[in-house]
Amino acid sequence: MSNGDPKAWRCSICGYNHTGDAPPDTCPVCGVGAEDFKPWKEMLPALALEKEVAVSRMWRCLVCGYIHHGDAPPETCPVCGAAASEFEVYEEASTPPKKAAAPGKWRCKICGYLHVGPEPPEICPLCGAGRDQFVAEGEPAGAVAGSGAGLKVLVAGAGIAGISAVEALREASPDASITLVSQEELPYYRLNLTRFLAGEVREGDLPIHPRSWYAENRVELKSGVSVTGIRPADRAVDLSNGSAVSFDKLILTVGAHPFIPPFKGAYLDGSMALRTMDDAKKILERAQQGSRCVCIGGGILGLETAGALVNHGVQVTLLEGFGTLMPRQLNRRAGELLGEFTKSRGIDLLLEARTAEIVGPDKVTAVRLEDGTLIPADLVVITTGVRPNSFLARQAGLEVNQGIVVDNHLRSSNADVCAAGDVAEHRGICYGIWSAAQYMGKIAGLNAAGAEAEFGGIPMSNTLKVLGYDMFSIGRVEPADGAGRPIEEEKAGNYCRFLFRDGKLIGAVLLGDISASGAVRKAVESGEDLSALLRTRPGGSQVIEHLTR
């Protein structure tokens, strides 16, 4: 690239970097048109001032966790489409810069300029790229934003995180080579497996895209195979069919596996977990009219599985080890109300029921509890949570805690390997929820294409529909000490509970009518002072009216 012919472009709205003879028609990160792109050199004065005074603010989308840099939030979130009103000012403790080995040589990823020194320059003197666009000489420069010509990206895992990554990557890099590895034949909405189990949707309704979509979007879909080894140094992965696939960038979206507690009989014939389409089909084969099923675990999956099997005339007993359902998301009274609703659906609910063993010489005949109770069963479905599929990453030398440890850009300890979805651990959290996997996948896909999109974490709230019952919870549901002030109300089949401390709303639960959930979430996230409202000694309805006006 000649010094007089700039071919690096910067979006003046979000800072996205594009390489090419002309700017892109639309920015893949923030969506503005080509007119908002400028050659890097024209932006040198502004960039230098930005580096000097550091006036830019950060904004986090309350819906998907996307982080925007700028003096104001974007009109719409480029990841989930939320409006500017759904953004909050975001502050994060700065991370000390990594020290470079001396003597240091730094290569600009945009124009190739080589800088000698203990640290990269603040701004590249040739193309104007910032210091974050430099890599130590000898390290892989990675992909630059643009058409993606020549860039090979491998997405391992075809759940919602993997598909979202592929969609974002193809949109951002029209010419990148994309390979998607799917353990199952055609990627589908795993979220709808219990609906399939209930007979509410057909198998043909589950795929995220038809098979033709992958060919039309030039995505090489490797179906029916799984990753058996990761070789970061060789930039390759090994597959279960004996082949290997090379990559420039790797996105690990390999998901999670069911956690099976170590009680006796857990692997008897007739003891199952629900994670795949094959699992659902095997459960349906045994779910005959009048058969007896025990579901172990009263979380969302256990409740939905129990409700689905009742639809087939199965006698279902649901075991929950705690005294109420979903104690991490619901306070005691809300858990009791959910329990009453569960029983009204024809499910036999046993609380504080801890499994000792699954009984049977060869196949399941009963479940024995720790108190000695014996529950006859023809089928047992274990729904006791999931664990990240992180063992291959650990074997490959990536940093792994519970999941693969990633930064805000969803990069692992190897800069060419991203992780998203259930397998990823971001700031100590493995989310294990569909919405987080979707948003993380999209951000990882953008970054594999050369963008610098950031994930700031999903606000700790839950909006759920369990057995057709709408629920919302956020923050603390029970006071940690005597200083919290709860306000709750049951009315016309609906329930609300608000927990205040020092004049601020720190947690809430809504059951039935959850239309106020957006306003409640904002009040908790913003830390708004509601002391004046509390002085009026409001009931639950008055709190909702105040927050939604």
Question: Can I get a quick summary?
Answer:
The protein is α/β, with parallel strands linked by helices and 549 residues long.
Across the major sheet, the strand order is 12-11-10-16-28
Q: What's the β-strand tally?
A: 35
Work out the strand percent.
Answer: 25-35%
Low-confidence stretches: 1-6, 41-55, 93-103, 138-146
Main pleated-sheet profile: 5 strands, parallel
- Mean of the pLDDT scores? 84
Task: Report the span from N to C terminus.
Answer: 57 Å
Q: Helix/strand-derived class?
A: alpha/beta
State the helicity in percent bands. 10-25%
Protein architecture, described:
The protein is of the alpha/beta class and 549 residues long. It is 21% helix and 28% strand. The protein is built from twelve helices and 35 strands. The strands form ten sheets. A five-stranded parallel sheet has the order 12-11-10-16-28. It has a five-stranded parallel sheet with strand order 18-25-19-20-21, covered by helices on one side. β1 (8-11) and β2 form a beta hairpin. α2 (160-172) packs parallel to α9 (434-448). It is globular and about 70 Å long. The relative contact order is 0.11.
